Amino acid sequence: MAGFISLPTTKQGCYQSLVFEYSHTIVGNSNRMSIEVDVLINSNSFRTLYLNTYSSVTEVSGDYVYTFDIDISKIVQSFFNNIQFFYDTSKTYPYTDACLTADVALDVYRYEPDANGILTRNTSATRSNNRLFFNSLKNDFSDYTASSGRKFITKNTDYRLSSEVTNLLAAYSDVNANVINIVNETTLVVTNVNMTDDQINIINLNDYFSNGDSQLTVSLGTLDGVDFTITGQQIRYDILDNKCESIGLHFQSELGVSEVFIFKTYEYEISKSRETELYVSSNDLERMYSGKIDKSINIERNGFFTAEWLFFSDVITSSIFYIEQTTGALNEAFSTFNNLPYRTISNQIDVNLSFTYSDKQKIFSN
What we know:
By secondary structure, the chain is mostly beta strands. The chain has helices at residues 73-79, 142-145, 306-312, and strands spanning 2-6, 12-13, 19-26, 34-41, 44-51, 56-60, 63-71, 101-113, 119-121, 126-127, 131-134, 160-161, 168-172, 179-184, 189-194, 200-204, 215-224, 227-239, 247-252, 258-263, 265-281, 284-304, 321-326, 329-335, 342-343, 349-365.
């Protein structure tokens, strides 16, 4: 008489409706019922909802069937901390953080009416099946979670790597594709990286190449002993010969993971401010200078290729940005977006973007 009659599809992005449908029959009583919903994320209670509004009620021979639509998309979205979407490169990869996926189940407690309409809460919950949701704007993850022909989770089709920026690559893992095979074709080094199932796994490609290398081949598949079988996408990267200083702009793509775009043309201004604080301890004067260097940077690109623009256009929806001027040195940046992309008379797409960020310094003296 009580239970879930439909659930959202598992392994989908959270930036859409995620509706669980729950139904219960009140026998011989026309007074209204309500429900309490405990949202469990990764087996822990995260948020509680109280629903007095049902989506439908149907009378059947004096009994009343109530149906509730429970949309938890906003709750799942609030679980993710997008500020942490780009991970510290000092951490061990594959990285399987709750900022990437949420394993969700619902516990529903009924408030059932007596003849006078007074509601009493039942003490045992009806639990839904578990569903895995991604921190993603993408509605359809079938290409990235398919049992065969699976893709790496990236929109970047410009398969080139630069040692001047941090290059991350993500993949979803299960028994159909749980190993990333990496071949450095300059030194002929083969590395198999085991992934964690039911997670988006991230590897740092910088760990597998260096200046002077020519190509890196990365494949999704499975491992049987020492034998690797390709069951998904294979990407062959060309290694760029870095001849001039560049800047990497890291942003969050609609797939929910970090992407990087390299700019060769930029300029920035530096303004320095200093605050002085005094402390007295044991009759000795300790002085601490805390300094902060603020940077305003302007980056531009003239003439995007179509594929480049489809990849870079997610900058518009990204909630977080990092500037990388020295490999591994990431500074959270704040966009002004005063200058929007425009298309020139020659049908090229030009972009000019402004960001601000800070480097902090501390100098101690006695």
